């Protein structure tokens, strides 16, 4: 509740006193009518609402997987048909579920204080406000954490069902299929003795497969979502080449001061920091969590673009677990908390006023 209240209060002052981007132009505060709700559906949020209302109208929209806009549409009658209200309430509801399952997952291996601290680090992450916006971040994180939790409980049917929903939420949800297989064999110390649970895991890609089937009937091309990624500057690449390209641009003499420079530095820094944290993670982090973290990060790097990396990284939950373990050092704890809160305030202000963050 403190997180939601703090975001609301800060958002009110940010929207009241800071300039904003309107139709590509910087407009001083007070010129436009005050609107507290609509800015929470900026950028990708507008696409989710558009798909929920009209379906897929443009080829580039096929990059947005269907589960979140479908849920917005299905539950909108509960809110008088208001798609924006439906999207906001669903996002915050799924955040609540994600926090519950992250807490339960942490408690399987760590103390009560560690689990609470892990939730704290998730909520103060500089782009955590996307969990409260009309974005699929909270839904995806809930499905990832829920799938891991039920896999740890050896309830492979529920784990695979949630993974299937994740694969209908975001293309990277398909990674849970391989991750669940890894967890399955990890629990059995990689012995090749199979039971019926092994075959239940093959339900995990069903959401992805149903979307391909829909695209086949709707467009004649089940892989059109890959073509749509090109609109968002994503093309297949080796992960290390993506990092080298971004690093070269940042260090280029003529790059400093260009309009996109700060954004590219932010995206590159997020990828590097998360990669280093995963590499130096404590061995107390479960192997399947680290496997998912590396797999997920490398998959984003393999798109040739780090666009939205500060937001997409929210799903790499083993990083937050690692930070909690490192935060036993009080100086490190203070530094991470102070820097995260400072950047959270800055990025939230920019996002609500129409600036691109992730």
Could you give a short description of this structure?
The chain has 358 residues and is mostly helical. The protein has helices at 2-17, 44-54, 67-75, 83-107, 112-124, 137-152, 156-167, 175-187, 196-200, 206-219, 224-229, 239-251, 261-279, 287-301, 309-312, 317-326, 330-352, and strands at residues 20-22, 25-27.
Account of the 3D structure:
This protein has helices at residues 2-17, 44-54, 67-75, 83-107, 112-124, 137-152, 156-167, 175-187, 196-200, 206-219, 224-229, 239-251, 261-279, 287-301, 309-312, 317-326, 330-352, and strands at 20-22, 25-27. It is an all-alpha fold and 358 residues long. It has one domain. β1 (20-22) and β2 (25-27) form a beta hairpin. The longest helix has 25 residues, at 83-107. The chain is globular and about 65 Å long.
Beta strands, count: 2
Beta content: under 5%
- Low-confidence stretches are none
Major β-sheet strand ordering: 1-2
Largest sheet: 2 strands, antiparallel
**Helix-strand pattern, N to C?**
HEEHHHHHHHHHHHHHHHH
List the domain count as a whole number.
1
Q: How widely separated are the two ends?
A: 25 Å
What shape does the CA trace take? globular
Number of helices: 17
Portion in helices: 55-70%
* Secondary-structure class: mainly alpha
Rg: 20 Å
